[in-house]
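Job type: complex structure
Entries:
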Amino acid sequence: MNDWDVVVVGAGPAGAASAAQFAGKGFRVALLDRAHFPRHKACAEYLSPGVRNVAQRLGVWDSIQRAGPCSVPGMEVVSSSGKVLRLDYSVEGRRQYAATLPRHVLDERFVAHAVASGATLMSGVIAHEPMMDGSTVVGVRASQDGATLSVPARLTVVADGHRSTIARALNVSVPAWWPVRMGLVAHYEGQARLRDGFGQMHLGPEGYCGVAPLPDGRLNVAIVIKADAVRSSGLRASDFFERWIQRMPALRTLLADCSRISPVRGVGPIGSRARRVSTDGAMLVGDAAGFFDPFTGEGIYRALRGAELLCEVGHDALLRDDVSAARLARYDTLRSREFTRKLAVTSLVQLFVQFPLLMEYALPRLTRRTQALEVLGSVLGDCSDAREFLNVPTLWSALRP
Ligand SMILES: Cc1cc2nc3c(=O)[nH]c(=O)nc-3n(C[C@H](O)[C@H](O)[C@H](O)COP(=O)(O)OP(=O)(O)OC[C@H]3O[C@@H](n4cnc5c(N)ncnc54)[C@H](O)[C@@H]3O)c2cc1C
């Protein structure tokens, strides 16, 4: 008999949310992570309004709320020439809010929720490869403090993030061909002149920079740039980061009275996709199942919503004692139904981010077309179905000359 019903590799939001749900249904769940929590994670730390809805369903929102997140009404996109588009989130006239919370706090809340639900947390455990019985995944081989460890399970949940060791070993992960970028993130404190509490997204040479208010008057500053930009500059990441800010007049002014209070954390290259998200005995979730780009800030939402879909299918498979690829394939279908259209919207937005002239064209038009703008905001905030934006009348109204 397997020791565990489910082994979850990676205790980020995707893994912890999956573990909590399986454990809550009475399954024996091992949740393993190479890190010890709380741990830092390079992220813009922005929770789209949709996160609140899923986190409420998962029963973890109250705990997040007690950690004192900062409520954010929306984002301003600032083009290279200084044009500003203000994007907020409303559904049928009702205002929704995004939130921010440092990842070392947020992720610990998710892990604590998984443990309170009955999962066993194994920290400092590095997963190296799937254990196979023929073509079926039957757990993972790992190590802890240099000693090897086998963690056999009926179902393996692959949630080890964007450079997933297990997804690569299963040969289902493919690096993104566009856009190929990396992220650099730091915390600041001081008097930033953010208008009305909105975050700001500044578009610049070879990338963009997001500035978002954090609790306690701090700021998250995240630069996303071409994957080789730091290496080819010959600079240290922290020097590159500060020089890049200095090259952007509006950003320089915004942060003039602020100082950096954390190291610059880097991550990259950040894009990947998975050819499939289930196989015999295993299911992928969160960034391990693919990640596009942080501009539209939906990674955590996708991680949590993906975990909900995974558990719906995985629960049924465990009850039937059938974790074959054929049984788990419904998860692939549910995910593509759920995420493909939003991906089309974010890809469209990326096109404008990549080509500054397109952005200069779109920003003043969208600012005037308030109805299309409201729809775009609610779709990007994960509050509305992407179909509401992806139809000819709305697209025409947003982008016509
Ligand atoms: C620069 C940047 C900014 C971003 N900003 C935002 C934002 O503002 N809002 C948003 O919603 N999303 C943002 N994202 C995306 C977001 O960070 C991810 O989508 C989210 O963290 C995915 O969660 P996850 O649980 O899949 O993976 P992760 O949060 O990466 O968790 C994976 C876990 O797996 C563990 N792990 C990895 N390998 C192993 C191994 N071999 N063995 C054991 N454990 C392992 C890691 O320690 C980690 O704890 C950003 C991404 C980047 C790169």
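Summary: Residues 325-354 form the longest helix (30 residues). The pocket of flavin-adenine dinucleotide is lined by residues 9-15, 32-35, 41-46, 126-127, 159-161, 165, 183, 185, 222, 224, 267, 270, 286-288, 291, 294, 297-301, 303 (CB under 6 Å).
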